[in-house]
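Hi R.,

Here's the chain you asked about this morning:
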Amino acid sequence: MCVQELKAQEADMAGSLDVIAALPGYFHTAQKKGYSGVGIYTKRTPSDVRVGFGNDEFDAEGRYVELRFDTPKRKFSVISSYFPSGSSGDERQSAKFRFLDAITPHLADLAQTREYVLCGDLNIAHQNIDLKNWKSNQKNSGFTPEERAWMTAFLSSGMVDVYRHLHPTETDAAYTWWSNRGQAWAKNVGWRLDYHLATPAFAASARTCEVFKAERFSDHAPLTINYAYDL
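And the predicted structure, written out as tokens:
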């Protein structure tokens, strides 16, 4: 179970949120209190835990944790990542572009040596079908031509958007985020910002997926994908 935007330090979670449903958690928290943070809960003990991806600027913000599961058959990683949002202004949008430039070669190198799935809030809606009001959002962070082009290039390199692999034309049911303003949730004026991006062999093992909308407990809805992958 991958989580993002924890807004907590590891000490804050000790004894309460460091283990959930008997699943130990592994975290990357931000240096700034109350900001960002990602985690992964798992019943399988990882072979290795990688915190950050080697970029000082964004590793300080707590945006990447990778659990490695190496067996005689496989080298496999699960990554929880929280991509920056640029919605607060030009400075953060520039930071978002720097993040994309920095993480791209890291993920490309990773795919050369192991299967992986990156789960996270990417703060990017890729296609017109990934948000309700695409025409009016083309200049807004999360749906700019540059961000969409990054996603297109990333997927063109051989990676797989697993939700779209299973549901290539789904629209309204695909949304995972709704603004807290107005009646966005009630009217389902949403965006698909949360993804599983996987190497082809792992993506091929995906069987079912669901965006959980039975109740709302965040501005995001959980994305659950079931895989049949033998480690």
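Helices lie at 10-13, 56-59, 90-113, 145-156, 162-166, 200-203.

Let me know if you need anything else.
M.
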